[in-house]
Amino acid sequence: MTQPTDIPRATDHLGTAVNLAAHGVPVLPLRAGKVPFGNCPACRGNTCGGRPNMKTPGPCDCPRVCHAWAAATTDPAVLTGRPWAPVWEQTQAVAYHPGGAGLTVVDLDNDQAVNWARETLPATRTVPTTRGEHWIYQGTMRSVNAVRPDVDIKSSMSYARWLGPGTGTMTELPDVVRALAVKARITARPAPHTITVPARAGGGECPHRMPAYLDRGIAMAEQRITEARSTVHATVYRTFLAVLSAHGRCGCLTDTHIERLFTAAQTKGETARHCTDAWTNARTRLGL
Predict the structure, then answer these.
(1) Is the peptide bond preceding residue 52 cis, with omega within 30 degrees of 0?
(2) β strands within 122-278, DSSP E
(3) Of 95, 130, 144, 181, whose Cβ has the fewest other Cβ atoms within 10 Å?
(4) What 3-state class would DSSP assign to 245?
């Protein structure tokens, strides 16, 4: 991919998008409020929120992942054709998918965050934003919000506004940034909660400790979440509830099992916060 400093500037949003796409950067238009437009007939009318003919936001019923970061493209025919051709006059900004361009953006939202980055992170290409800076590294990772106060990481499954090529030499994604995501994930994910239960009648091991039994249950839960075509929020909660009902009282669930469930939910678009809330609510429902 061509380095961002080599991308020519354009005076209009469509021109900017086409220039970026020509250099291998997947792009998409943003409407007012830095929100993506819908990218298919089922979503476009209500901008990927709510059901058809409803004006209020809500879960998208479209069966495809076709909006937000997943809509970013380098195909000029998509950018200039349907359904985006009519929206460029309404476009307020151009966004890009950093992960799709092989990049990671550390989004620093104010001066305090910028000062922290200057003291903590390796120097790289920087782009000024309205309130802070984007620090751009070569390499991809999982996107995570709020890894520390006023600091987000945007890479895979995320989008960032294109604010210009920036200045400075881009460097490789450092371990210190990857570590921020790991720390945030551990903090956001609830630890397994063990309850002491009476010994099994007749002795013997808990059946959940059989790897095949537990792994099959987790795999079925992942599949249930992955195949959800609507009401994803409710599906995630019900699935968490089922897993905890079957495996939550004997201490068999490990961090790895919970990580698999959270990853499946976040792949469907759920936030880490919603996953944590759904998990906590399920535990409360079961008295764990």
Answers:
(1) no
(2) 125-128, 133-138, 144-148, 151-154, 160-161
(3) 130
(4) helix
Q: Determine the residue type at 224.
A: R
Phi, psi of 46 (to 5 degrees): -115, 20
pLDDT, one tens digit per residue, over 151-205 is 999 998 789 999 999 999 999 999 999 888 776 554 444 444 433 333 333 444 5
What amino acid is encoded at 70 in this protein? Answer: A
Residue-wise pLDDT tens digits, 13-40:
999 999 999 999 999 888 887 877 755 5
Contact predicate 95/67, CB 8 Å: no
Cβ-contact 134, 108 below 8 angstroms: yes
Both tokens assigned to 194: 């063990």
Q: Which of 101, 154, 151 is nearest to 121 (CA)?
A: 151
Buried b (16+ CB within 10 A) or exposed e, 153-178: bbbebbbbbbeeebeeebbebeeebe
Q: Which of 190, 206, 215, 188 is nearest to 273 (CA)?
A: 188
Burial degree of 224 (CB within 10 A; 0-12, 13-18, 19+) = middle
Q: At what angle do helices 232-247 and 272-286 cross, to 10 degrees?
A: 50
